[in-house]
Amino acid sequence: MNWGTRRDRVLTSMMTDSFATVREIGLGFPRAQEARYYGMPALTVDGEVFVVQIGHRSAEPNSISVPIGFERRDELIAANSRVFYLKQHYAPYPVVLVRLGQITRENLQRLLRSAYDVVSSGSVSAGHHRGRRRQKASPRKITRKRNR
Question: Tens digits of per-residue pLDDT, 41-58?
Fold first, then answer.
């Protein structure tokens, strides 16, 4: 088995340990469940993600993504950019990125509760883009000609 380099194992261990606090808080909410989202640890309520550990290369290590809405995201970043931030990859989504090493447990609990509430009410979903609409599938049936 190839477990990667020692550095990779240490980084993975550090990220998993930091998500343990998020998991502990989040699983205390009703109907919250542990899941995977794009291969990363996440917590869901009624099948919708309300927090996920970040795996994208543009994000800082030891960060989470929390769906909270576009306006609230802008407010949080303006109020405390040391804790909350955004990378271009995440800009179309109603999420804020959180540096786990910079947020207190009390504030993390409040943030997760807020995310849980907006996701469980259906007012925000982590996977929905701003300003983009899905194209309808073509009603025409596409067939291929067989070569004989």
Answer: 999 999 999 999 998 888
Instruction: Give the per-residue pLDDT at 56.
Output: 87
Q: Residue 38 is part of which domain span?
A: 6-121
54 within a domain of the structure (yes/no): yes
Distance of CA 87 to the CA centre of its chain: 13
Range 54-86 burial, b when 16+ CB lie within 10 A, else e: beeeebeebbbbbbbbeebbeebeeeeeebbbb
Report the pLDDT value the prediction gives residue 146, as an integer from 0 to 100: 66
- Report the candidate in 17, 24, 140 with the shortest Cα–Cα distance to residue 9: 17
pTM for the full model?
Answer: 0.74
Domain membership flag for residue 148: no
Count up the domains in the chain and report the number.
Answer: 1
